[in-house]
Every structure is written in C-alpha cells, then in structure tokens.
Design goal:
With 552 residues, this protein is an alpha+beta fold. The chain has a domain at 470-551. It is built from 16 helices and 22 strands. Strands 6-5-16-17-18-13-19 form a seven-stranded mixed β-sheet. The protein has a five-stranded parallel β-sheet with strand order 8-2-1-12-20, with helices on both faces. A three-stranded antiparallel β-sheet has the order 3-7-4. A hairpin with a 4-residue loop joins β17 (259-265) and β18. α2 packs across α9 (359-373) and α9 (359-373) packs parallel to α14.
C-alpha cells in the first residue's frame, strides 16, 4: 500500500480558477501541489478581457467557507437579478425597449448560503492565488509561471515543459481549459482528433475591454491588469448610460440571433459588455484582439448599445461551439484527470461562461470537490478510484449508478436553453417569449415565472449545490459498499472481501432507502440513517473503521 504520511504529490496544469481552487483544496487536505502556468503572469497578458466572473451562490459559499468572504465582497458587486430589454427597437427611441425584471428569490439565496457576486477575473484569480500560496510553516503549493506543458505521459505520470524539463507526480490534474494539452491528450487516447470534434453553433461572442490599462506589482509577481470593462468614469463623461446602472445593475438584451449582456463589475462598478452575434470566420482566444471592431458586429440595435460599444477598447471574438464529450475524464492509467472547462466545456456565453452565471462557480465546485475527496486518503494506489469518483458525480452523461445526479449534464442543458432564450430569431416563438415576460412584469412578477419556471427551477437546483456535501455523499456510498461486502445472504455480517476465515457474526447491517432522504440532509446524519450497523464483533468493526479512516 503506497501510503505517505506526508501526503501525495500533485501536478496541476493551469493557474486557472479551477486549478487554483484545486490547489487550495488539496493543500487543505495535506497534499503537495505544483501548479504549472504557461503565461508569464497571473491571468495572462494583453489588453483584451479574460473574463468578468458572475459567481453564483454555489461558488460563493466555497469562497466564504474558506475564509475569503470579506475579500471577495470587497471586490465585487452584489447582484439581485437582471432587467430584460429588446435589442432593436426599430429606431423608435435611443433607449432599448424595457421588458421587465427578474429578481433572485432571497429565501433561495439564504438557503444556498451564498450571494450572487460580480467581480473582475483578475481579482478572483488574485484572491485564489494568495490563498493557495499563503505562507505556512510547511508550504505545500508552488506556482511556476512561464511553464508551458507540451506533453503529458499518462502512464508514467509525467509532464514535459516546452523547455524540455520533466516533472513527475503521483497524480496530474488538467485545469488548462477546453483547448488545453491535458484534454487534448485524453481525446487522442480515445482516438479523437481535437481539431475536428468541436463544432461551431452559428453564434460568436465578442467581449470588450476599456481603452486603458494599468500595470502594478502584486505578491512579488508583475502582472497586467487589463480592464475587462468600460470604466464608469468614461461613461459618465460621454453620455447618459443610466439604464445600465438602474436596479438591479445587470441587463440582458434580447435580439434576433443577437444579444447583449451588460452588468456592473468590481467595486468600481465599471460596465462589462458581451455581445452575441452571428458566427464569425475568426475564432480567437481570450487574449487575441478581434479582427473587427466592436461597433462593426452589432447589426441593427438601439442607439444606446451603439454608444456603449463605441467606448469599448479592443475586443475578443470566440466562436460558440458544441464541444466533444470525453468518454472519460480520467486517463486509462487513472493517474491523469481533467476538470473545469477541460472536463465539461460549455457554450461560450451561457449561464456559466465569463459572460455567464456559473462558469466560475463550476470551476470552484470542481476544485473544492477534488480537495474534499482527497482529504480521505494519502494512498497513491487509490488515485484512480478517487479520480473516477469525481467523474461519477460530475460527468456530462448520467452515471449508471442512480445514487448520483448528473450535475454538469443538466447545467449544459440550462446553458443551451439560456442562449436560445436570448437569441431567438424574430417570429412566433420570440413574440410569445416577449408577451409572457411582459405579462409577468405587468402582474408584478419576475419575468421568468410561469412558463419559464422550469428554467428558473433549474437555476435553483444549480445555486443550492454544495460540493462538500456531494463529496460526503460519495463517502457514504463507499462506506455502504464496504458494509455490504460484510453482509451475508441472511442480512447478517459474514466474510469481508470473500475471506472464508472470517466467522459469521452477530451483527446486522441495514441499507436504508436513500430516496426517502432529501439532498439537504446533513451527511453525518444521512450516513447514520443510510447505513445502520448493529452489535458487530470487534474485528468486523475494525474492518469498517479501516475503510472509514481512509475516507474521513
């Protein structure tokens, strides 16, 4: 048994939100983590936006539970919902046509133990970076910048850098995105060519940056702070943009195959602006300047959208794609895993992307889940088991074991529904959508009530998720499986792992019906209800305890 009291050695490829969150979680579990980031500075270079997170309650609660609430709130804007407008008003008014408002249910947010926060990508990365490398008596996390991984050997558990340097670990985690080297390695292992299996959807996304940027030194690392927003001061000096600041300071503008998401970001309340357009021939990255100017891709729209776009600096352009679904997030060796966008890439500008509600929350969840389950073991031989446990809980296709819920597959569906809702082509469906929203607003309800309630309920399900509870649920499953190995045909404990030398025991085990217990049940209480062990002899209880020790 390859168990180390000092913990396991992990390599994390990518100092992304998912990568840094994984490092924090694994550090808390007592493991050593080497984070390799190809960019020379945190967040990457350039004058174009790298994202402006909208962190939902499921992600906020992770930051809060890790003691990062004060710092996160100080750098963010609290969102209480969003206002809905029409993209093109036919030139009737300089203003966008107002449809209504959707407000988040405060009871729901209280139950979810989190808020809905909007902040800069660089600020979130800095918060996570500082938490990961925070000096301890025995530092466990090392981050190396300018370390581009060009090769991954899943069998030897090594990575090769562009410099030729080789690093070896007990496990490798890929947090370098949908186009990252780790995901590409797993696709090739499945016999799939990465360049032919990510199909365009017919939409593209443009994001804007402010004309100016500043540079400063943070944590002894020189990093660029390119703004991913249009500064509030610039807006105040160049016209009336009051509708973008009206409560709840977050707007969604719906058009025919087009749309705009604009919201306040960071403590300065600058405006972040993302635009859906028909597909572009260019497919760039978050740090590539688009070939076209922002104002050139808008099409017919309200005048205030044109004026806002005119104040934007360089833009990015990325095609919205349907990505190939990996059959396995873990390598055949079980030593290499992808998470975050590498595991479950989502449509670019739905609820969960930089112009979205949950891209960052899902990344936070992935990292927190990995850290939580690996707090249960220091045994190198169990890495494949634990990596596959991650996939079982968060895979894009429903797992065969009904004990688990396919979280990321449901989120993927919500993403597509959200994009379709915003960009419906003009016609009967778009007219029905608008009429339903207007009627709800006239009746004093949120625009997504009634006919759109299913989508809203999906958001509720997303918001209230807790990765720590999910990880504990997996532990319940493993412990119950261990208990069932001891159970004889008469329902009493017999041999363990088929060992004939273990005598029949006087204890009984009852596996209760999980369906009767809600997901909100505390997991310790849940275990007591789900697996009941009565009056077992000492050696059987020691067997269960040994499994439990590896999982607690």
């Amino acid at each position: 048994m390859a168990t180390s009291k000092a913990g396991l050695n992990f390599i994390v490829v990518g100092a992304s939100v998912a990568g840094l969150t994984s490092a924090i979680g694994l550090k808390a579990a007592g493991h050593r983590v080497l984070v390799l980031e190809k960019d020379s500075q945190l967040g990457g270079p350039g004058l174009v936006p790298s994202g402006c997170p909208r962190v939902s309650p499921s992600g906020c609660k992770i930051l809060f539970d890790w003691g990062l609430e004060a710092e996160t709130r100080a750098r963010s804007v609290l969102s209480e919902g969003f206002a809905v407008y029409k993209y093109d008003n036919g030139g009737k008014s300089p203003r966008r046509e107002f449809i209504g408002v959707n407000l988040w249910n405060q009871e729901l947010l209280a139950e979810a133990r989190g808020g809905f926060l909007q902040l800069r990508n660089q600020d979130l990365l800095q918060i996570l970076y500082d938490a990961a490398v925070k000096e301890d008596s025995n530092p466990l996390v090392t981050v190396i910048f300018g370390a581009e991984v060009v090769g991954v050997d899943c069998d030897t558990c090594t990575v090769t850098l562009q410099s030729g340097q080789i690093h070896r670990a007990d496990a490798i985690i890929g947090a370098d995105g949908a186009g990252g080297v780790v995901r590409r390695t797993l696709m090739l292992e499945e016999g799939v060519a990465p360049e032919t299996h990510d199909k365009p959807t017919g939409l593209a996304m443009y994001g804007c940056a402010s004309p100016n940027s500043t540079t400063r030194v943070v944590s002894s690392i020189e990093r660029c702070f390119p703004s991913a927003s249009i500064p509030r001061k610039l807006l105040e000096e160049n016209g009336d943009f009051a509708t973008f600041y009206e409560y709840p300071e977050h707007t969604i503008t719906m058009g025919s195959n087009r749309g705009v998401i604009a919201y306040c970001s960071g403590k300065e309340k600058d405006i972040m602006m993302w635009v859906y357009t028909p597909d572009s021939s260019q497919d760039g990255t978050w740090t590539d300047v688009a070939e076209k100017k922002f104002v050139d891709v808008l099409g017919p729209c309200a005048e205030e959208i044109e004026k806002l776009a005119a104040l934007a600096g360089p833009a990015t352009c990325l095609q919205i794609r349907d990505h190939y679904n990996l059959q396995s997030w873990a390598s055949r060796s079980g030593r290499v895993l992808v998470l975050g966008e590498g595991a479950h890439p989502l449509p670019l500008t739905g609820l969960h992307k930089p112009a979205s509600f949950h891209t960052y929350s899902i990344a936070l969840e992935d990292g927190a889940f990995i850290g939580k389950i690996f707090s249960r073991t220091r045994n190198r031989d169990r890495v494949p088991e634990f990596f596959h446990a991650f996939q079982e809980h968060r895979h894009v296709t429903p797992p065969t074991n009904a004990f688990f819920e396919p979280r990321s597959s449901r989120i993927r569906v919500l993403e597509k529904e959200y994009i379709s809702l915003i960009t419906l082509p003009d016609g009967e469906m778009a007219a029905a959508r608008d009429a339903a929203m207007r009627a709800n607003h006239a009746d004093g309800r949120s625009v997504m009530d009634n006919d759109l309630e299913q989508m809203r309920d999906g958001m509720i399900w997303v918001f209230t998720y807790d990765p720590a509870d999910d990880a504990d649920e997996w532990c319940v499953y493993i412990l119950s499986t261990a208990a069932m190995k001891l159970m004889g045909s008469d329902g009493r404990i017999g041999g363990y792992n088929g060992a004939a030398s273990v005598p029949q025991a006087s204890a009984t085990i009852s596996i209760n019906d999980r369906s009767s217990f809600p997901r909100s049940t505390g997991r310790r209480e849940y275990y007591q209800q789900y697996v009941t062990i009565e009056d077992g002899p000492t050696h059987h209880m020691q067997t269960i305890a040994r499994e439990s020790k590896n999982l607690n």
